[in-house]
Amino acid sequence: MRHGSSHRPRRSERRSANVPKPERPPSRRLKEAPGSDAALWSKCPKCGEVLYRRDLAANLDVCTRCGYHFRMGAFDRIASIADGEFAEIGRDVESNDPLGWTDKRTYPAKLKSDRERSGLSESVVCGFATVGGFPVGLGVMDFHFRGGTMGRVTGERIARLFEEARDRKVPCIIFAASGGARMEEGMLALMQMAKTTAAVARFMQDGNFFISVLTDPTTGGVSASFAFQADVVVAESKAMIGFAGRRVIEQTIRQRLPDQFQTAEFLLEKGALDMVVDRRKLKETLVRLLEYAAHE
Amino acid sequence: MSNNLIIEREKGLVELERRIAELRQVSAAQPLDMSSEIGALERKYEQILAELFGTLTPWQKVHMARHPARPTSLDYISRFDRFDELHGDRQFRDDPSIVGGFALLRSRPVMVIGQQRGRDTRENLRRNFGMPAPEGYRKTSRLARLAARLRLPIVTFVDTKGADPGISSEERAQSEAIATCLQTFSTARVPIVTTIIGEGGSGGALALAIADRVIMLEHSTYSVASPEGCAAILWSDASKAEEAAARLKLTADDLRRFGVVDEIITEPLGGAHRNAEDVVKRTLEVIDAALTQLTPLSEERLMEERYRKYRRLGEWQAEGLEPIGAQ
Fold first, then answer.
1. Distance separating alpha carbons of residues B307 and B212, to the nearest angstrom
2. What tens digit of pLDDT does each residue of B147-195 get?
3. B71 and B30 both lie in a single domain
């Protein structure tokens, strides 16, 4: 059983009973033995503050002292945005091993351990919910599963989300968190950029509204496809967003990059984003945006 | 020492070529009949060529795709009946790593766009080694939209290690530029034919490669990341690139099997640069034939088929190695 839930009574209350419990991911950011007292506490990597986990969860995984945004699990995110019920789609789509990939471990072994550790079946959870009363399609990526990389299942679920949202004529909100295309699925992973683009384009051509929320980190094949194709591109405070990863750029230019480089605030200043929003204001911001698209 | 494996393999051949040419010259200038010597040398040459290049490993293909003498986009475009280059993204600058403009291909007006690397250091610096910046992708989107407006088919050539990973490219939102390119190609209501002529590196290559027909040269490569990049990501060791190249399934045959590529153009023994004129000519014939097939399709059918092509790609299924989306 997942150990995190018993320490987070407030979260459990806020989470609708309709969100199935077994899919609850434990957060990998909390590196402690299950049941130990350490599980009660989290240390903020930014300011070093030791935070009581229940307080942290109640504050949407934002440090109560410095405002650092911890990486959020997909179902925690859904609970923080959806009004209540969340109907997941695409659960039947699961990964296999198209290239017969092995590096340090086999690809199926990596998938298996990530499934066990994260409680997720893949790097994205898609479905339908209401947000501020508006029915929407929600796609939430989770960095805790293969670094949020996009493989065939990720692409397939996102494409299905946009196709179904197009049929239902409801807006879509995507929460991006990704290291890019997944190496272990080779070109088939890269082609998910084309697949998601096709589904998003059809959805938007019909006049449907698409909001993208970029969270830490959003890079590579995800930032260079659906994440930046939205009508409105929002980012969470301090999220790292870019095409090339920081390490790749540093190796290319053989210089250390300034800390601010590729942060949401930096991109806002450069004109790449519509707005940067604190997670604690995110839901109300999304609801306001949905209102503009739902006039009449 | 060249760091290109193919050039290393070619070194002895260059010497043989020189000797054959010398003998021919001598033979032409003198009454002596040297045809048997020349014949013997030529047979030897052919034999070595077959031994060296008869089969290439994925890693050797990566080097073949990067060979400095391999035909580049402009080598193909210059064989069109006419080409009028259009420049610039209208926002920032003209990116020389992408060339594009109006062209006539066998009297058919088209929009042609290609990634352009340099042949030597100087040209490579100017063209940023064929790695486009956001303004290159924005120029591409602009030209593709123009083509769609004028009902001109789009012909593209892919030849890049990847999108430029520099500071200024990030500052000008490389991700957005590529994302918009993908969107433009996905929605352009005209036939699109793409040919992977050299290296197809990641999203920076795909930005020009959403197409109704994807053609690939036999020894070109097309992959989710460069083998060096993949090795650095997975093993934190770029020297494992050879191993990564084998695992990534980046050859034309692999990609045909996956349905990513529709058609393969064979290359002469030793690679396209050994008979560039023939390769370019045959490639343009295949592009022309694809356009002839696509042009009569109704706009609706064209768009539906393109949607289905990419919607099916990488479909998850139990037998992952079955051809997916292949015709």
1. 9
2. 999 999 999 999 999 999 999 999 999 999 999 999 999 999 999 999 9
3. no
Q: Flag whether B175 is in a domain.
A: yes
Question: Would you say residue A115 has pLDDT above 70?
Answer: yes
- If asked whether residues B79 and B49 sit together in one domain, one would say no
Assign residue B266 a region: left if phi > 0, alpha if psi is -120 to 50, beta otherwise?
Answer: beta
Same domain, residue pair B48 and B81: no
Residue B327 lies in a domain: no
- Helix, strand, coil % (nearest 5) of chain A? 40, 20, 40
Does the bond joining A45 to the residue before it have cis omega, within 30 degrees of 0?
A: no
Angle at B181 between CA B131 and CA B144, to 5 degrees: 105
Clarify whether residues B168 and B220 are in a common domain: yes
Q: Verify that B72 and B40 share a domain, yes or no.
A: no
Closest CA to B306 of A153, A198, A189: A198
ipTM above 0.85, yes or no: yes
The answer as to whether B317 is a domain residue is: no
What are the φ/ψ torsions at residue B93 (nearest 5 degrees)? -165, 175
Within a domain: B318 = no
Domains and CATH numbers, chain A: 72-293 (3.90.226.10)
| Mutation site, A191, A253, A255, A267, interface B, largest B CB count within 10 A | A191
Q: Is the predicted pLDDT of residue A9 greater than 70, yes or no?
A: no
Q: Which residue has the tokens 């307080």?
A: A55
pLDDT band per the 50, 70, 90 thresholds, residue B25? confident
Q: Which domain holds residue B70?
A: 63-312
Counting Cβ atoms within 10 Å, is residue B20 exposed (0-12), middle (13-18) or buried (19+)? middle
Instruction: Judge if B45 and B122 occupy the same domain.
Output: no
pLDDT at B321: 41
pLDDT value for A1: 36
- Whether residue A253 and residue B166 make contact (CB cut-off 8 A), yes or no, is yes
Domain ends where: B54, B73, B89? B54
- When pLDDT is cut at 50, 70 and 90, the band that residue B3 belongs to is confident
Structural domain count of chain B: 2
Q: What is the CATH number of the domain that holds B274?
A: 3.90.226.10
**B78 - beta bridge partners?**
none
Q: Which of B90, B236, B92, B241 minimizes the C-alpha distance to B161? A: B241
**Cα gap A189→B202, rounded to integer Å:** 10
* Better pLDDT: A73 or B318: A73
pLDDT of residue A296: 62
pLDDT digits 0-9 by tens, A22-55: 444 444 444 444 455 557 899 999 999 999 999 9
pTM: 0.90
Of A109, A173, A175, nearest to A146 by C-alpha is A109
Q: How near does any CA of chain A get to the CA of B305, in Å? A: 11
* Nearest-CB residue to B249 (from A187, A198, A243): A187
Does residue B143 share a domain with residue B276? yes
| Angle (deg, nearest 10), helices B35-53 and B5-29 | 170
CA-nearest residue of chain A to B319?
Answer: A98
B32 and B81 part of one domain: no
* Amino acid of residue B188: A
Nearest-CA distance B119 → chain A (Å): 21
- Chain A environment of B306 (Cβ under 8 Å): 198
